Amino acid sequence: MNERQGFSVAGIPTIVVCLLLALAGAALLLGVATGQLGRDGLLGIGLEVIVAFTLKGFFQVAPNEGQVLQLFGKYAGTVRQEGLRWTNPFYTRRRVSLRVRNFESSKLKVNDSDGNPIEIAAIVVWQVVDTAEAVFCVDDYENFAQIQSESALRQIAQNYPYDAHDNGKPSLRSHGEVINNHLRDEIQARLDKAGVQVIEARISHLAYAQEIAQAMLQRQQANAIVAARERIVEGAVGMVAMALDKLRLQGVVELDEERKAAMVSNLLVVLCGDRATQPVVNAGTLYGG
């Protein structure tokens, strides 16, 4: 079921017509001089009844709002024109907000693709774009949007790891934009039948579950230490190679392979050590010690 425009006319001119009919009916009733109503009296009463029934057809439409019209249970269209409107008095009307809305899901506890329990929540920004589908295709479109969003969030959390061990694989923590776009598409696929458009979906809370949080924190610290050590070793090796090349090119000293190995070992200890080194001055010969 798709939305279509419902019948309505401007309310102000219709009010003027109703006032004129009411005045005409009142004039006919006042013009009855005898106790018998007569034809004019009946006509006046008829006009007043028609005016009273016609007043039921007036309604207001606020900005970014739609009025869904039904005639004896059948969908008769939606009115989106702002201001005072008039329609068939037999129509029943239901107000549907077209404004942009948002909500934050509850914190879900779910296992990621690696099987680690995590806590995750998301903020979803959405609005109704088809009032007919929102009203007639689902029972409660607001509750439907929230439940289906949480279902999509749970599915996303199960498809990605919290942390990626492979640099080419997206993860929940490191690839936020990719995850948010995928989450928005997943929610949109579930809410299409409800006439709802998802404008934005973004993860608002992401953490390991309490029972493994400490262990995972230690693992992250270990990974950071290993990465730092790799960077230090890489830089130290480059500095040692540069020092040996400069000594050789400038002819400062000639070293055999054994002394080169000793020098490389000493330099790596100095450059890669955690603590400051204490220099030792060799007062003897290079080979005598």
Describe the structure.
- This protein folds into 3 domains: 9-97, no CATH class; 101-208, Tetrahydropterin Synthase, Chain A, CATH 3.30.479.30; 213-272.
- The chain has 7 helices and 10 strands.
- The protein has helices spanning 11-30, 38-54, 131-136, 141-159, 176-191, 210-250, 257-272, and strands spanning 9-10, 58-61, 65-71, 74-79, 83-86, 92-97, 101-104, 108-111, 117-128, 196-208.
- Helix 1 (11-30) runs antiparallel to helix 2 (38-54) and helix 4 (141-159) packs across helix 5 (176-191).
Q: Characterize the largest beta sheet: strand count, sense, and whether it forms a barrel.
A: 4 strands, antiparallel
- CATH 2nd-level architecture of the largest domain: 2-Layer Sandwich
| Average pLDDT over all residues | 84
Can you identify the CATH class of the largest domain?
Answer: Alpha Beta
Which class best fits the helix and strand makeup?
Answer: alpha+beta
Report the principal-axis shape: rod-shaped
* Poorly predicted tracts of residues: none
Radius of gyration from the alpha-carbon trace, in angstroms? 39 Å
Tell me the number of helical segments per DSSP (H or I, 4 or more residues long): 7
Count of the domains = 3
Share of residues in helices: 40-55%
- Tell how many strands the DSSP assignment holds: 10
Strand content: 15-25%
What is the CATH superfamily classification of the largest domain?
Answer: Band 7 domain
Under CATH, the topology of the largest domain can be stated as Tetrahydropterin Synthase, Chain A
* CA-CA gap between termini: 94 Å
Order of helices and strands: EHHEEEEEEEEHHHEHH
